[in-house]
Specification:
- The chain is α+β, with helices and mostly antiparallel strands and about 300 residues long.
- It has two domains: about 170 residues, Ribosomal Protein S5, domain 2 (2-Layer Sandwich), CATH 3.30.230; about 130 residues, Alpha-Beta Plaits.
- The protein is about 35% helix and about 25% strand.
- Strands 1, 2, 3, 4, 5, 6 and 11 form a seven-stranded mixed beta sheet that branches. It has a four-stranded antiparallel beta sheet with strand order 8-9-7-10.
- Helix 2 crosses helix 3, helix 3 packs antiparallel against helix 4 and helix 9 packs antiparallel against helix 10.
- The chain is globular and about 60 Å long.
Length: about 300
C-alpha cells in the first residue's frame, strides 16, 4: 500500500440554466486533496479558500468518502490517516466544492486500496453521497457532462467544450446551501414548463457540441429552478442584465447559486467589471473570476 496519494479536482458549474441536476461543466479552478497513512490516529487539515467554513475533523465529507472506500473494498484500514484539503474553490457558492471533496476522498482512498473500483463505480458512490450526479460527473471527467440516473446507476456522456468559451463568475460574499436553495422549489411543475426545459436543455447541448453559440441566449432559459432560486440572490436580474449588456452571450446561476456565471466569447474583463458593479449597487461584495472549461477532469498522483 502506498503511503501518500494526491488528487487534484476541478470545480464545476452545473445546470447551465435548463439542465437541472443533469448538466455539468468542469472549470479550471482546483482543490487538492492529499491522503497519507500514519502510524496512529486520524488528522484532517483544511487550508485555503473558506477553510473556516469546513470542519477540520473526521466529519469532513472527504474523510467520510475515504471511510466508505475502505468499508466497501474490505481492505484492512491503516492505523491512521492524515487527510489534507488545500481548498481553491469558494465554499457553498454553487461551484461544486463539496463534490470535489467527495471525489478527492474517494479517488485517493481507492488508490490506497489498490484501485478496486472503476471510475463508473466511484461516480455512483459520489452521487450517493452528493445526492445528484451533475457536479461530481463534471469534476471527475472534465468537459461538459450530461448525466442520468437509472436504478442507482449513473450514465454519462462527455462532450468537449470549445476552447473559445470563457466563463466569468461573479461570486457574491455570502453562502447559499443546496438544501436552502431546494426548499424554494415547487413540488411539481406544469407540462408546458417541462416541455420548455426539455427543448432548451437539448438545444443547449447541441449548440455547445456544434459550436453554435448564437443559440445560447435561448438555450439557457429555464423555468424549473432559476425563477425560484434567484429570489434568494439580491440583484440577480441586474447582474444578469449588466453581463449581457457588457457582451456576455448568456447568463445562468452556477449550481444552486449564489454565484452567477456569464458565458462569453470576448469582452471578458468588461463583463466581470459590470457584474461586480451590479452586485455592489445592492451592497453586496463580489469577487470575480475569469475561467475556461477544464478538459482533463480529476487527476490522481502517487507521491514518492
Amino acid at each position: 500500500m502506498p503511503r501518500k496519494i494526491i488528487a487534484r479536482i476541478p470545480a464545476s458549474t452545473t445546470n447551465l440554466g435548463p439542465g437541472f441536476d443533469v448538466l455539468g461543466l468542469a472549470l479550471q479552478l482546483y482543490s487538492t486533496i492529499t491522503l497519507e497513512t500514519t502510524a496512529t490516529g486520524t488528522e484532517v487539515v483544511v487550508s485555503g479558500v473558506d477553510a473556516d467554513k469546513m470542519p477540520s475533523t473526521p466529519e469532513h465529507i472527504a474523510f467520510q468518502a475515504v471511510e466508505l472506500i475502505f468499508k466497501r473494498s474490505g481492505v484492512k484500514r491503516p492505523k491512521g490517516f492524515k487527510l489534507s484539503i488545500a481548498n481553491g474553490i469558494p465554499a457553498i457558492r454553487g461551484l461544486g466544492g463539496s463534490g470535489t471533496a467527495v471525489l478527492g476522498g474517494l479517488l485517493t482512498a481507492n488508490v490506497l486500496c489498490g484501485t478496486p473500483f472503476s471510475d463508473a463505480e466511484l461516480l455512483n458512490f459520489a452521487t450517493a453521497l452528493e445526492g445528484h450526479p451533475d457536479n461530481v460527473a463534471a469534476s471527475l471527467l472534465g468537459g461538459l457532462v450530461v448525466s442520468a440516473q437509472e436504478d442507482a446507476q449513473v450514465h454519462t456522456v462527455r462532450l468537449e467544450c470549445p476552447d473559445a468559451l470563457h466563463i466569468v463568475l461573479a461570486i457574491p460574499d455570502f453562502p447559499l446551501s443546496t438544501e436552502q436553495a431546494r426548499q424554494v422549489l415547487p413540488k411539481s411543475v406544469g407540462f408546458e414548463d417541462a416541455i420548455y426545459n426539455t427543448s432548451r436543455s437539448t438545444l443547449l447541448i447541441a449548440s455547445i457540441a456544434t459550436g453554435q453559440f448564437e443559440m445560447l441566449p435561448i438555450a439557457m432559459k429555464d423555468r424549473l429552478h432559476q425563477p425560484y432560486r434567484t429570489s434568494l440572490i439580491p440583484g440577480f436580474d441586474d447582474v444578469a442584465e449588466a453581463a449581457t449588456a457588457a457582451g456576455a452571450i448568456s447568463v445562468a446561476l452556477s449550481g444552486a447559486g449564489p454565484t452567477v456565471a456569464a458565458y462569453c466569447l470576448g469582452y471578458i474583463e468588461q463583463v466581470a467589471n459590470q457584474m461586480r458593479t451590479a452586485f455592489n449597487k445592492h451592497q453586496i461584495a463580489c469577487d470575480t473570476k475569469i475561467l475556461k472549461p477544464d478538459a482533463e477532469g480529476a487527476n490522481v498522483f502517487i507521491s514518492a
